[in-house]
Design a protein that fits this description.
Layout: H1 3-8, E1 20-28, E2 35-43, E3 46-52, E4 55-62, H2 67-77, E5 88-95, E6 103-109, H3 112-120, H4 160-164, H5 167-173, H6 175-180, E7 184-189, E8 195-201, H7 204-217, E9 226-229, H8 235-243, E10 248-251, H9 257-266, E11 269-275, E12 278-282
Parallel strand pairs: 3-6, 9-10, 10-11
Antiparallel strand pairs: 1-2, 3-4, 5-6, 7-8, 7-9, 11-12
Helix pairs in contact: 2-7, 8-9
């Protein structure tokens, strides 16, 4: 199915929620005692329910922007569906915009076979936290053994210069973070290191799902390239990328031992501490 055909299957309602909200603070200067009032922007963080075939299966705390992309990326990276075209009739609904009770729901229709499989997993897909395991009811449900992927030829040419190139512009491409200072970014870079897409969220895994969903909606998931992120390399980021056959992941901070273990099993190139002029490739 082409990207155009896929788009006709997704009825996207316009998102009216605002990802940044006005706030106030006092800037205190050490040693001088000067206190300067400031008006500033704060990142919104609202509960977003992911509803498959009319039943809510996950509630995440998300920056309310790019929610259709987020839902599609989540469905793919969590194994709810196997192909992007299995997400149909995506609708973003919102209530209480700008109030303390604001919330959103993203409704997605998936085929009966995938829906039955989702129910049989016998777990509530509760939003991931820093530990990445909340809502999982058994050790077996962790899914810590990704299938190995084929390594594309261009990965052999992926060196520090190409890996660091997108990080040189990633910060200035974070439109929301420039104003609020509290959002992670997930970016997509070509094999030569050209940054093509940047998605933002208060949660690192949410930002990655938004990016993967953006690529899926555009029919670009299989194109050559790698993911760059402004976070540590946690195991769930590696697992999401491995499930969607992303051959390389580069992050600003270091990986955990579990993240490195999963990357090795998947055959994924893992780069960390990507801070020009150096980057570490973990072997």
């Amino acid at each position: 199915m082409s990207a155009i055909e896929f788009a006709t299957n997704c009825h996207l309602l316009p998102e009216t929620s605002v990802p940044l909200r006005p706030g106030t603070a006092q800037q205190h200067h050490a040693g001088t005692g000067v206190c300067v009032p400031q008006a500033l922007d704060l990142a919104a963080e609202v509960p977003v329910a992911l509803v498959f075939n009319g039943i809510s299966h996950a509630v995440m705390m998300v920056t309310p922007q790019d929610l259709a992309e987020f839902a599609v990326g989540f469905a793919l990276s969590e194994g709810v569906v196997e192909q992007a075209h299995e997400c149909r009739d995506v609708q973003v609904l919102q209530q209480g915009s700008g109030t303390p009770d604001e919330s959103c729901a993203v409704h997605v229709e998936i085929p009966p076979r995938q829906f039955m499989r989702l129910k049989e997993r016998r777990r509530a897909l509760v939003g991931r936290t820093g530990c990445g395991v909340c809502g999982i009811d058994s050790l077996q449900a962790l899914d810590l053994h990704p299938a190995p992927m084929a390594t594309p030829d261009w990965c052999a040419r992926l060196d520090a210069a190409r890996v660091l190139r997108p990080f040189a512009t990633l910060g200035q491409c974070q439109v929301l973070n420039v104003r609020a200072g509290s959002l992670h970014a997930a970016g997509w870079a070509t094999p030569e290191g050209e940054l093509t897409d940047v998605l933002e969220d208060v949660g690192r895994h949410n930002a990655l799902d938004k990016l993967l969903g953006r690529l899926a909606l555009a029919g670009r998931l299989g194109e050559p390239g790698f993911v760059v992120m402004t976070s540590r390399t946690s195991y769930e980021l590696v697992r999401k990328c491995a499930r969607l056959q992303v051959p390389a992941l580069a992050t600003i901070s270091a990986p955990t031992t579990l993240a490195l273990q999963l990357a090795r099993e998947a055959g994924m190139q893992l780069w960390g501490l990507c801070r020009p002029p150096t980057a570490l490739r973990y072997v």
